[in-house]
Specification:
Elements lengths: L14 H34 L1 H5 L5 H32 L2 H19 L5 H4 L2 H29 L7 H5 L1 H23 L2 H6 L4 H17 L6 H9 L6 H8 L1 H10 L1 H19 L6 H28 L2 H15 L12 H19 L2 H7 L6 H18 L1 H11 L5 H18 L4
């Protein structure tokens, strides 16, 4: 049976090709969903619980900032993971590297469930927490780039952005699973039970998800473009060194281009959750429910942006999303009103919908910046360093801004993040 592509870029119709494409899409989506579930159950627990559980009771604000600092720690680990996993991904292959990153991420998350608290062992507790959080970040540093390559390098003609958006869909799906479980536990358990042991259950559940992810990924073969690159020439001896000497402009542009999506996400999730449950005094279950509803708009934005990118270009769609982020920052704080939960939901839903346009096309755009021999290293490094600039400091900076200047100042962080991404996207002025 022949395999063809229609004029609109429709997926090829060969049965074997369709099965292979389906496996690729499921594997790229399932893996990142699990990885982001692991990452977000930590962010949720850090926003709600980890301050008093793992740090000394100097003040509630200090505990919260220390808890947010452990979120930032993972962003420092992510570029290191990107460098190590990118090295082997460009030299050995995408598949085996993705399996290793999933096992490291899953193991670190599972062990958090069994950590002692500060009241039990003192400073040993935050030390162990930071160690495992570092492991989470190191594993996730190698995950996104490999999953994006798995999708994009196996995409049929005209479908690279839509295939490339699948790893990004893992973010809202993982977040829905994480916050949905926390919300369910909050409704099922008393506050005392939830704080005493209930928060550990989502971390235990991650082990089951990792087993599913490994089963899916082990069924895949290597990508066609990577095999072709190996046949054409030997792999780079040190992919990161080649990247930073021959592809500096692309790396810097890609790094800046990824800033806005991280700023949007961590302001709208980690910071917003703690602010709603703390300063605004909303019940924890109500705050989780508002975010859970708003996150569906992020998924919708990713899907729409992926479709639009294949019909226009990924870079132009990213520019539109980042320009909208700049504008959003000036009105973001006005939506945080405890007396108007609908208004609060609306501002978060709009912000996360815009995030879909700053995030969905990244899989296609970032991977297009680099040749196959350094593509794993390049896309992973740019994505994760962009995460440091846009996401690592976001909850901490937002907490400082809201304490010092009020909630309206938090939006300026988003405006700055959108502007940085526009610099990268316009600087690399080609599709």
């Amino acid at each position: 049976m022949s395999t063809t592509t229609n004029q609109d870029g429709a997926a090829p119709g060969g049965i074997a090709t369709m099965i292979r494409h389906r496996r690729v899409l499921v594997a790229s989506l399932a893996g990142t969903t699990i990885e982001f579930y692991d990452f977000y159950i930590y962010a949720t627990a850090a926003s709600l619980l980890f301050g008093p559980l793992f740090f000394p009771a100097e003040s509630k604000s200090a505990q919260l900032m220390l808890s947010f600092a452990t979120i930032a720690l993972a962003f420092i680990a992510r570029p290191l993971g990107a460098a190590v996993f990118g090295h082997y991904g460009d030299r050995v292959g995408r598949k085996s590297t993705l399996v290793a990153s999933l096992m490291l991420m899953g193991g670190s998350t599972f062990l958090i469930a069994f950590l002692p608290t500060y009241a039990m062992v003192g400073w040993v507790a935050p030390l162990l927490l930071c160690t495992l959080r570092f492991g989470q970040g190191f594993g996730l540093g190698g995950e996104w780039g490999g999953a994006a390559l798995l999708a994009v390098e196996n995409a049929p003609s005209g479908w690279r952005a839509r295939f490339g958006m699948m790893p990004q869909l893992g973010a809202p799906l993982g977040y829905i699973a994480a916050n949905g479980l926390f919300l369910t536990l909050g409704l099922w358990l008393s506050d005392e039970e939830f704080v005493a042991w209930g928060w550990r259950l989502p971390f235990v559940a991650s082990a089951l998800l990792v087993i599913v992810g490994l089963w899916v990924r082990l069924k895949l073969g290597e990508t066609q473009e990577f095999r072709a690159a190996l046949e054409a020439e030997p792999p780079a001896a040190v992919p990161l060194a080649e990247l930073l000497t021959r592809h500096v402009r692309a790396t810097l542009a890609g790094t800046l281009g990824a800033v806005a999506c991280f700023g949007l996400f961590y302001i709208c999730t980690a910071f917003a959750l703690s602010y709603m449950a703390g300063s605004l005094g909303l019940p924890r279950t109500q705050a989780l429910a508002i975010q859970l509803g708003a996150i569906f708009m992020m998924a919708f934005g990713i899907i729409l942006a992926g479709w639009w990118s294949d019909h226009l270009s990924a870079r132009r769609v990213l520019i539109a999303g980042c320009a909208a982020t700049v504008v959003l920052g000036f009105v973001f704080g006005s939506g945080f009103d405890a007396a108007a939960p609908a208004k609060l939901f609306a501002i978060l839903a709009v912000a996360l919908f815009i995030m879909g346009f700053t995030y969905g096309p990244l899989g296609e755009w970032l991977t297009s910046l680099f040749p196959p021999r350094v593509r794993y290293s390049g896309s992973s490094f740019a994505f994760n360093v962009g995460g440091i600039l846009g996401g690592a400091a976001a909850p901490i900076a937002a907490q400082y801004l809201v304490t010092t200047y009020g909630i309206g100042a938090v939006g300026l962080y988003l405006t700055a993040a959108g502007a940085l991404s526009l610099i990268g996207l316009v600087w690399l002025a080609r599709d």
